[in-house]
# Entry
Amino acid sequence: VILVDGTQRESVSARDRGLAYGDGVFRTLLGRDGVLLHWSRHYAKLAADCAALGITCPEEPMLRREANAVAGAAGEHAIKMIVTRGAGERGYSYAPGAVPTRIVLAEPLREGHARGRSGVHVRTCRLRLSRQPALAGIKHLNRLENVLARAEWNDPRIAEGLMMDGGGDLIGGTMTNLFIVTAGRLATPLLTQCGVEGVTRERVIALAAKEGIECREQAIAPADLAGADEVFLVNSLAGLWPVCAWETRRWRAGPLSSFIQQWLDEDDGQVD
Amino acid sequence: VILVDGTQRESVSARDRGLAYGDGVFRTLLGRDGVLLHWSRHYAKLAADCAALGITCPEEPMLRREANAVAGAAGEHAIKMIVTRGAGERGYSYAPGAVPTRIVLAEPLREGHARGRSGVHVRTCRLRLSRQPALAGIKHLNRLENVLARAEWNDPRIAEGLMMDGGGDLIGGTMTNLFIVTAGRLATPLLTQCGVEGVTRERVIALAAKEGIECREQAIAPADLAGADEVFLVNSLAGLWPVCAWETRRWRAGPLSSFIQQWLDEDDGQVD
# Structure
């Protein structure tokens, strides 16, 4: 099911700037039996990303109604919301009053997400993320780097590829945020130069603060990963995937990963 | 007029990967009285860009027929061709046999292009282009950097903004390629880290080779620009714009700029 600007249709204008320039943002969240998990956090991120690009974000009640409509009342769905700057004349400049386009769609959740919960094998991508502080953290529609990185492998046993930036720091997976655990402390890549700030990453950071677990946003080198006691990946559809194999390194699911996984599962974000 | 996959319609699938990820490429060329100027070069660039991203480029005769159809028989039009990886499932990975989407549209040429031919004022953009060798030179649909840079000014007297990369080297304008003339020699930014390789840039390089004028692709710093005898910008719609003002620096249209401008105007690329 797809709603485009609130109407059930399968198409957008061929002049949409989301298509012409990737001029827009998106978020993906989990809908479970009619509940939009962590809606408030997702909407806040979407609105902040729109603001960063100067796009007028659709009002929260309207977007929530549309997400609820596509999610339906039963089952688990991936719900994707795209907001673009709208249709426009050819050329990079845009009128200040541009009317954004909103696309809200739902797809049944794939089984791969659940399978990763007992542990995943990951690889390192050759493609390096470029550093662009003006776009870092934003979940914008310029995602060719992710597409090229994801195209590097097709072995279904590899669940995710880790991406480094041009300086060799690890930034995250192609569709996940990365955490490492070292001597009981959490760390996750600093996303001031590239990468996407996911809602589940934000939730893990908030949980750590609440539980008194140290969690730093910092540069993480491959050597830090190799030396970590636990490594895990998160996103809003998968929850937490413990990493059990990367290069020659092997891990068992550790206690902190298990604790956070369980907490992520139990908190559906309805009391945000 | 817009043709989507050869059919006159105004819309594309809301699941198109061009929209979801900017997963595609484009080229813009000039149509004049039914003639597609420098078609062969534009198609070659489009095909090379498709190949770089692993997208199947539409066959040349079909795309040429569609460009001719939207261009019509009279007047000057900007003709834009977009090729995306096509509609697909959610997620960065794609099936090898993905059917690309092609969008061919024409718009009447704006008068600003002609006005710039006697000289333009340009500014320096604050936004720095990120370095990404995997995408450098390709005219792909991930153009948020250009959108943000173009949004930095709205003074209609400023025709173009010059963009630097993260290291402070000049790369080009938001929609043009840059050349400088110093002591009778041409230089244009090396585009191995970022920027778009335009057809008119390629034509100027070819002309210089034919005429025995030295033309280097090299790093160009702002100091090199300030010290240049002539500076000009090119693209396929505008031809050549001499730069007459940048920061505190002023230039008159110089002899090499005038020679190249005239040659660009006279060669319509029908004997390529």
Summary: Chain A touches chain B through 59 residues (CB under 8 Å). Chain A has a mean pLDDT of 95. The longest strand of chain A covers residues 120-129.
